[in-house]
Amino acid sequence: LEVYDAPEVPLAIPPLLEPDQETATDAYYTVEAQAGETQILPGAKTKTWGYNASLLGKTIVYHVGKHNHVTLKNSLPELTTFHWHGLGVSGPYIDGGCHAPVYPGEESKIEFTLHQPAATTWLHAHPCPSTAEQVWHGLATMVIVKDEHEESLPLPRNYGVDDIPLVLQDRRFHENNQWDYREDYDPDGVQGPTALINGTVNPYFDVTTQKLRLRILDGANRREWRLHFSDNLEFTQIAGDSSLLPEPVKFTKLMLTCAERAEIIVDFKDYKEGDVVTLFSDDVPIVRFRIHDFTPDNTVVPDKLIDLPKEEADPDLPVRAILMSGMDEEVMLNGKKFNMQRIDATQPVGKAQYWDITNSNDMVGGMVHPFHVHGTEFLVISRNGHEPYANEHGYKDTVGVNPGETVRILVRFAQTGVYMYHCHIIEHEDGGMMAQIQSY
Ligand code: C2O
Ligand code: CU
Ligand code: CU
C-alpha cells in the first residue's frame, strides 16, 4: 500500500437501500447490478460497477424473521450472480453461487427468511470463473442483519453517524484514472497500491459522537489489512463475521483476511474538537477521523454480548479433512480443481461436524488462505490444536488459515442444499481452490 497523492475527500457513506414495499411481515427489494462511472479522483471518472449505484452499492438491511422478496436485476453487459456472503439461506440458487446466473437484461426473484444472529455480511458477484474480475469492477456491498437481541444492547447504531460501514479494498489507477483487471492480473490475487475505502481515496470522516462503531469488511480480492490507529488507540471488537462476540475484546491492532468482517467500537473520549485520529494499514493512512464537538457518552459496552448455544460435533460423523494446496495456477482443494458438475462431499442437515482445514503452503513465506463456507456460520475450535484468536469466539464464515496450519471448525447446515466452500483470495477461488458439499 502506498499513499496516493490526491486531495482528501469525505468518506463515501453508501445510502441504505429502501425497500420497494414493506409490511409487518414482508419486505420487497430490488437489487440491480449496473455499470457506471464514478468520480473517485480529480480528472476523469473511473468506469465502475455497482449495486443500485455506480460503484459498490447501497447498504442493504435485513431483519431476522422478516420474509424478504428480492428481485435481482442484471443491467450489466455480461452474466452475473448475486451471492449473499454470510446469509444463512439455502444454496445454491438463493445463495447465488455460480449455479444461479442472471443473464444480461434479465432478472430473477428469490425469497428467504433469516434465522441467524445480527451480523455484518455482504453481497458480491460470484459467477465462476469471473468472480474476481466482477468484484474488482465494484460488485460488492454491505448487508447488515439486524435482530432484537442486538437492538437491546447499548451500542451505537445510528447508520452514517455513529455506525459506519468501512469496505476496505485496493486498486491500481491506470491512465485516465481507469482500473485494468487484465493488465494487473495475478493468479495469486490482484492487488493495487492505493487503498479504496467505500470507493473513496484519501477519505476523512467527521466524528460527531464520542463513540463510533465501525463495520469493517475486507472486500479486497487478495489483500490482508493490518489495522491500527494513531497513538496506538485501543479499540473494542464486538463482532466478527457472523455474530457478536460472546465477550468484547480490546485491541490496538487487528488483522483481517479477505471477506472477514469485524465490528469495532472506537471511543474518542480523550480527544477534542480539531483533533485527527488516523486509521492505518501497514503504516499507510487509510481513513482520517476528524473530531468535532460531541456530548459525553457514558454508555459502557456490555461485557457479555451474546450467548451462543453449546454445540458438539456429531460423534457419528468423522472429521472432514480439507487441504488447500498450491500457488498460482496450481491451486487446488483436496487435490482437485473445482467442477460445478461434481458434488465433493455430503453432510446430514442439522448435524455438526468438525472440518480440519490445512494450508499446505510452506510455513515461511507462504500465503494465508482465507477459508469460507457458504450458507452457514461456523465456530473456530482450534488452530494447530491451540486456542483460536481472542476475536474468533463468535460465529464466523471465513477464517484465515496460515501457512502450515490446520484450523478446526465446527460446521452445521441448517438447510438442505448445495454449498460451495473455497479460499476467498478471489483469484484462488476462480482458479479452482473450491469445492461443493450437499447437505441432505
Ligand atoms: Cu464471498 Cu463463495 O463467497
Ligand atoms: Cu460466500
Ligand atoms: Cu488461497
From TrEMBL:
Q: Which domain of life is it from?
A: Bacteria
- Any keyword rRNA processing? no
Molecular-function GO terms, alphabetical: copper ion binding; oxidoreductase activity
The answer to whether UniProt assigns keyword Oxidoreductase to this entry is yes
InterPro entries referenced in this protein's UniProt entry, alphabetically: Cu-oxidase-like_N, Cu-oxidase_C, Cu-oxidase_fam, Cu_oxidase_CS, Cu_oxidase_Cu_BS, Cupredoxin
Could you tell me which SUPFAM superfamilies the record lists for this protein? Cupredoxins
> Signal peptide span per the entry?
none
Gene3D superfamilies noted in UniProt: Cupredoxins - blue copper proteins (2.60.40.420)
Q: Which UniProt keywords apply?
A: Metal-binding, Oxidoreductase
UniProt similarity note = Belongs to the multicopper oxidase family.
Query: What protein am I looking at?
Result: Multicopper oxidase
Q: Which organism is it from?
A: Amylolactobacillus amylophilus DSM 20533 = JCM 1125
